[in-house]
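Milestone M4 deliverable, item 7.
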Amino acid sequence: MSSVRWSEEEVMFDGGGQSSGCWMNACGGGRRHLVVALESEQGREAHSVVTPPSNWVKINFDGFVRSKAAAGGFILRTEAGKPLVATAFNSGVASIPLVEALVLRNSLVCAKEKGLSKIEIEDDSNLVTDIANGVCDPPWRLLKIFQDIKSLRCNFVSISFKRVLREANFVANVLANIGHRVENCHFWEECVPPKASLALIFDNVNFGF
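Output delivered:
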């Protein structure tokens, strides 16, 4: 089992794993499932993490606010864990719900432009995920963005939204942090920035990719 220590600047972990920045393709086929024990403030907990089904693409996204400055990031990955697109952007002054809604909308635009048809979307925000799933209505400040999101959903054959714990959203966390260091928006095709490489390895090794 891996013990995880998170900081704003980097992701550090103890235990097995490789130190290169490349993605790893796990052996075997089908829908792989793994239970990982992680350290949390509440103690040691088991988190069930499932890789996306074959021919689906997983999107992880996150927003980050520091001193009222907001930034966001998202990553699109195949069922084997290979990055398709990673993005980090600076969105100026915004609340966390607003920037996370913006990141979700931007990730759907990216998925549409890539011609994807089946996507599984994960975030560590209860509010954004509940609104996307129709559990509650968006506050008025988010209404226009979620109208856009509802319209974008029609472009996909299958789409799902799931809330995950932050431990399962590492790469998106790091990309959102990087968003504070870029001007406007930055894209990485079929790779991640060096500062996100350890987070990607952590996901691929420990979460069954």
